[in-house]
Amino acid sequence: MSMDTIRNSFDGDSSVLSWETWNRIKHTERFVVLSSVLFVLLFSYAFGRAPVVSDVFQGYHGLAMTILIWSIFALGFNLLLGQTGLLSFGHAMFFGTASYAAALFAIHVYNEPLVVVLVGMLAAVALGVVSALLLLRLHTVYFSIVALAIAQFLYFLAREPLVEITKGINGLDIPRVPLLGIVDLNHEYSGLVGTLLVNNLYIFIGVFFVAVVALITRIRKSPYGLIFKSIRENETRTAFMGLDVWRYKFAAFLLSAAIVGLAGGLMAVNTQFAGVERLYWSVSGDIVVMTVLGGLGTLAGPVIGTFVFFYFKGIVNGFPTLGNYWLLLLSLSFTAVVWAYPDGIWGMLTDFTAALRDPKELLTKTRQRIADLVPTGGDR
């Protein structure tokens, strides 16, 4: 086969290997879901045990599970902010409430991991219904601040008045029991399964991660998801089309609360603990940073942002001397990325890979970005 033939196979519009074909494939639901399955299968291994790669990352299996759970949290938050344009500074209320509900149900009613997680999610949805009746009457910064106020109210309520139930700053310990009474979540595998996935707990979390990715992908590509985007772009025009904007915002809010509540329930099962710190305002702030850093409104962005955040918090934090400044380094990285690429790390990666198809275009875009970032003498 000649080089011309190979080149034509990539350049032809109807070729299986053309860029146009690849662009069609990568946006299909099936490809996104399969990619999430592959990510779960390889993430813990690449992060903590793969030769060379793991030596660079210096990660470990427990942190990989934490990142998956917080990625679910970030995806749920991004569904509200990235799709609908509603910025909440109080999403910790769903995360913490779900953790407490899961823990209390496990301790006092029935300690089955799957049921416990679902109870946590339902508790978050119930809280979402009540809070939405107040919050969705507000707009812009008022929505954000009142959401923060509700979350802080729940934090102080759990810390002091309800200390007999929540145990205050000491939190609640949850014994871990077999899934469905037969599957030991602590069981570690040998062979290939053990190398990639390690134990049943990782599989348990990974299944929920894939399910959330599949759900959000379906929503994004459905007419419902398009209406969410319409509300984000112009709420007034959406209302002029005869659509009940409040009803769609209510649906988006509850979907976001359900996914975040799922993450809260999983965190309770993973750590065997529920505490007031999961209701604290800094949790809401952290999830905003993760989502914006990775790429607001995208599917992969929140996962990337979560990984970067916890890499700094869990790995860089342990470095000698440098670890003392991990939050400063994260802040500088966040500022640099968002300043140069408002679409976050995912936007930077997609822009770069697209430009690689045409080196001249890459050079032109690089020069343009430098010109935009560095003021010239004529701008004085």
Strand and helix map with partners:
Blueprint: H1 3-11, H2 19-26, H3 29-48, H4 53-57, H5 61-84, H6 92-108, H7 113-135, H8 140-159, H9 163-166, E1 172-173, H10 191-196, H11 200-221, H12 223-233, H13 235-240, H14 245-271, E2 273-274, H15 281-294, H16 301-314, H17 326-340, H18 344-356, H19 359-373
Antiparallel strand pairs: 1-2
Describe the structure.
The chain is mainly α and 380 residues long. Helix content is 72%, strand content 1%. The chain has a two-stranded antiparallel ribbon. The longest helix is centred in the last third of the chain and has 27 residues, at 245-271. It has helices at residues 3-11, 19-26, 29-48, 53-57, 61-84, 92-108, 113-135, 140-159, 163-166, 191-196, 200-221, 223-233, 235-240, 245-271, 281-294, 301-314, 326-340, 344-356, 359-373, and strands at 172-173, 273-274. It is globular.
